[in-house]
Write a structure and sequence with these properties.
- Helix 1 (5-28) runs antiparallel to helix 2.
- With 50 residues, this protein is mainly α.
- It has helices spanning 5-28, 31-49.
- The termini are close together.
C-alpha cells in the first residue's frame, strides 16, 4: 500500500480533531463532543485513505 503525503497530513489532522473532541468532552462532559470528534476522524480517514 502506497502512502501519499496528503494521507499523512489527513491522518494527523484527524488525530488533532479527535484529541480536540476528547478535550472538549473532558471539560464539558457532553458526549456529543466526543461523538463529533470521532465522526470527523472516521470521515477524514475514509475520504483520504480509502
Amino acid at each position: 500500500m502506497k502512502i501519499n503525503a496528503y494521507q499523512v497530513v489527513a491522518v494527523l489532522g484527524s488525530l488533532m480533531l479527535l484529541i480536540s473532541g476528547l478535550m472538549r468532552f473532558s471539560y464539558s462532559g457532553s458526549p456529543k463532543e466526543l461523538i463529533i470528534g470521532s465522526l470527523y476522524f472516521a470521515a477524514n480517514i475514509f475520504i483520504f485513505c480509502l
